[in-house]
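Encode chain A's predicted structure.
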Amino acid sequence: MTTASGRKDQYNEMAAEYSSYEDLPVARLEAELIRTALGDCTGLKILDLGAGSGSYARMAVEAGSWQVDVVDISDAMMQVGREWEPNSPGSSRIRWLLGDVTKPLADQGVGLLPAGGYDIAIANWLFDHAYTVDDLRGMWANIAASLRPGGKFIGIRAVAPGIFSDHNCKVGKYGCLRTDIRRIPDGIECRATLLTNPPFSVGVTLMEDSYNRTDAIARKLGMTDFRSMPEPQTRVVQADLGF
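Encoded structure for chain A:
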């Protein structure tokens, strides 16, 4: 089983290559969907969990957010974002906070706003790195604790049946190729290769509660009104309806 230390090491190692991820088709689709879901963020306080280099934190600032707190287990990933900051208008509204989002952030001295202090919580691909159900529960618990009543959560995650499709497992047409898929307790484990130049790989795990969109853990924590963003309306999909 991958430990928190091992998890941190693999993210540190891929920090430099990850900056080219945004050029992939899957990343362009993701960016369109997140931008639409964020909408007008004027004056809002936003928490971005597992945010790495903070590309969506910067997007939230551009949309008007008053403050975005980025939390990630890898300081190397966040350093990439810090180095981009001088060229990003409003980047002073981003705080970079080191923490393990599978554990209660309130107990780690991370420096977040008080419980219920955020209008929006973001977590993109975070759930695909929950190595156990307890990890997934910890992620959702941090999300639920962070949001004010009526707050909004936005997330990107791998879901069935797409994760088992040929374009993901054999071809990698849209920029990601999944290999070495195997069953583990309550989910699956695989290798995800992002077809950047040069490509790089990362080990990922997906719990059934997440990839089947059951979301029993989140619902028990009071999360409601789950919705999927309409991919067919995006420019990326309009240019390739097979996507």
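Residues 4-18 form the longest helix (15 residues).
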